[in-house]
Amino acid sequence: MQTIEMSGTKVLVLSAQGTPVATEADGNDMIGEAFSAGATLVAIPVERLGPDFLRLETRLAGTVFQKFVNYHLRCAIIGDITSQLEDSKALRDFVRETNKGRSIWFLATIGDLEARLARENA
């Protein structure tokens, strides 16, 4: 885990290894880590997502993302979720809608996150 500055935004970048986000409490832990680091955005590699995180019917993603929003933190899921998108129209719709906003993004690479923040803060 490291904290870096990207286009004026302090980003907590989690490593691909570590405890997966498999429960609401795991999401709370990430929020706590972000506050401890003074970050306003958390970049979470898809490898850190528990097996049910992107299954929207579990409501885990929605609950965790809502907590991020409630605490005025942004979140970027970084990595390839192509196979999950192919299996779920609801997830495709969810990703499309969240990517239109400013709070929750799904991006392929950390470079994509940096580019998006640069455009946003230009």
UniProtKB/TrEMBL annotation:
InterPro entries: DUF4180. Residues 8-117 form the DUF4180 domain. Pfam families: DUF4180 (PF13788). This is DUF4180 domain-containing protein.
